[in-house]
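Q: I'm writing up a methods section and want to include an example of the input and output format. Could you take the sequence below and give the corresponding predicted structure tokens, formatted cleanly so I can copy it straight into the document?
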Amino acid sequence: MGKILKDELKVYHDKNILITGGASFIGSHLAELMLESGANITVIDDLSSGKEEHINDIKNNVNFIKGDVRNPDLLSTQMKNIEIVFNLAAMHGGRGYIETHPVECMNNMLLDHIVFDTAVKHGVETIVHASSACVYPTNLQDDEEDRYLLSEEDANFEEPGKAFSDGEYGWAKLMGELQLNAFHKQYGVNGAAARIFTAYGERENESHAAVALIAKALLKLDPYPIWGNGLQTRNFTYVADTVMGLALAGTQTKGFETLNVGTSSHYTIMELCEVVFDFYEWRPENFDFQLDKPVGVKSRASDNTKIQRLFNWEPTINLQEGVVKTADWYRSNIKEDQLADLEVKLMER
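A: Here is the clean output for your methods example:
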């Protein structure tokens, strides 16, 4: 990342940055990148899905606050002198979670509003909102063969028919974007909504597809369970690329922008599985395609025209490299006494 880090991320040097949800899977990697960029970092996380151990390596160099950002008094105390906010706090999970927790997903609208409002009241210069590819209309993602690339203009509030998000989680994320744009219009705060696509990597958990499939292979489950027919596609984006995209979004210092942060390659679930099997040098004899499980849209990948134009950059880590890093981390960190419980857990994922 050398040249990009020097030329683009130098703007973060000595900046006071707040990362909500900064002990989460993605948030903790972002905190490390911001620290490497020379920023002064405050992390707020209620540890409902994040883990304090995720920031163990940098904890002595950041201001870590355990707390819920929906508490305006707590948030206001920590927002003093902050210049840039990365808003990653959210109620979230894999497809199984968002299909069964619609109320919690809609609560993200309240969370976002409190963060944006408090930031504006304290004179924050820039807010980067972690949005999602789930904001995109589902009708653009209903064909396994089409391999359509989603571009930022495919989801907006300016054109009729351009807002039809993926479930309550997607609608809440899209409304977060609308809220941030409203704060920009009324108060002048700079805003960027980074639409994250299917991130995976170290510190992710088994509620998401990539790590769940890695865990199932580690346990050598045979028949090997797969949600759906295995032909649905995603653009699996390694977390180091995801946080670089978030960081680049934060360098936009004027106006309001939406920005895709994901790869432009479609991979079927079966293609992901084959990379996992190669890593473990094992392959099941049989598959259990669980067609009754929620799988979401049939196809999803990112049009990277905009991020290429603005920054001459797009994700650089391919699926094989990213999966090897993730599977190696997972195998090294799972404990023997967790394996029995893990198998039960994976029967639900």
